[in-house]
Amino acid sequence: MRKFLIGVATLAAAAATIAAPAASTTVAAAQGLSFRPLSYNTNGYNWGGYAATGSGFTSVSASWTEANATCNSTNDLYAPWVGIDGYGSSSVEQTGVATDCSSGSAVHQAWYEMYPANPVYLSVSSYPVAAGDKIAASVTYAGSNKYTLKLTNSTRSWTYSTSKTLSASRASAEVIIESPTGAYPNFGTLNFTSAMVNGKSLGSVNPVALDPSNGAYEARTSALGSSGTSFSDTYLRE
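RE: above sequence
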């Protein structure tokens, strides 16, 4: 697995909004694929995790440790992310970390997306991610069709935050793993923690469990933990 060893200084104002850096053309952006609403994914194993449904969702957040993934093929691509919309709607406001195998080895890259706009991949030199890094992600509705998307890598002491505008239904909120190609690398088990929706535990909003457990490259979603804020997705290949 490629490791990024470029040092990054701690940002003085970690939560401040900063300009989006140019997308890299050598890593995850190379596949040119969007992390899309569930209705656009024809394969049953594109999404795993949990989706809360209803109306008026204003925030979603979760944390995870970036998995040490092994590529099965150059088609493998997946990402853990959090977002609003996407389950039963045609837009998604989301942010997470993509693991891309198009180079032949797993490469991790932070990104956000205001679908149907294309995903924006963050510079790997300014915002590096590697297996074992502690990631926290959130999407917050700020009113007047404005969303704040925030991603923090506490292991490497950086935070990226951006505010974007999109007219959307806010009819769902998700903590998800997704493979746009339908081909997951072997990521072992990825544990989500501190999963919250509208300031409450994910479990308190009776979310729908999404289990991508069919096809050649599989993942299995666990039940929620007793606190309603944790669950895991585990790679399976049959």
